[in-house]
Amino acid sequence: MGGLYSLIFGEEHPPNEVTDVQQAKGSISPESSPANSVNEGNLSLIQDGDVTQRTDAIFPSPVKPDHIDDVDKKNIYVICAGKSKEFFTFPLENISVLLEEACDWARKKPQNMKLVFEGVELDAMKTVSEYPRLRRGSKVNLIRAS
Q1: Helices 51-58, 34-48: inter-axial angle, 10-degree rounding
Q2: pTM for the full model?
Q3: In the prediction, which pLDDT does 1 show?
């Protein structure tokens, strides 16, 4: 390809290019090895400027949502006294937030109520993501605390 490339663009082979295998064996020294030239090139890149900008150009990071509404929410159905309502929660939101929203909807005091999912009382201090079986579309019961 070098010959065709030089015919089209008029370039000549560089003077230090090795064309014979015997020449290559005798002329490699530790200072001029390709590995050292690559490492020196990487060091100059690091010292020259912002490395993160260069790595972002090579390895783009996944798209992050700009707005909070774009974050993945879970829809959880809360059932109280035969009525059901859908609530949207973030995975890292505390259960206490869901409890307060559900109590506001049912017009109950949060101190007197608790949330039960599959027979287990949900701890108000834990997050929604700490309950792996609590997924989208799950049904949670709002009952009076005893």
Answers
A1: 120
A2: 0.52
A3: 53
